[in-house]
Amino acid sequence: MAETLKSIVGSFYLNVDNAEFYMNGDIPALKVKDPDGSVREYDRVILVRNFPFQYEREYITVLDAKTKEIGVIKSIKDFGEETETILARELERRYYMPKISRILKMKEKMGFTNWTVDTDFGEITFSVKDTYKNIVKLHGGRCIITDVDGNRYEIPALSGLDKASYKRIELII
Asked: Is 0.85 topped by the overall pTM?
């Protein structure tokens, strides 16, 4: 059977009528009911935000263990409370991003900036290479900082930083 363009690039939307998420131990799993009535089961699924900085719980792509797309969730709120909790927990685990409340120290050394910060997970120290390229300023005064290991840290509002913290970062933003 010849594939149509829609079947190649079209997204299959997952919703409460055709998808059942559940936990397989500590891993989210999924049963999908296809339009033809057949059921596919995935013992492990991966959730990926299509717009990670703008929509935390909307437009989520669901992948199988081999990272092949299964479908897209328009909003996890469209599912019941239990499923929403499963999906939200998995997204929070995958997109672990401590929120910085204070910048305690910033020290430049050999092309790296070493940061010591207070976050919602406690005091953290990390290094950033090429600081100007690894700090993204977003709408509403948000900032995302990516360290040398690819971890991300968020400053929810630059205006919410104390004077000393703002002074440390103002030259590089």
From this structure: no
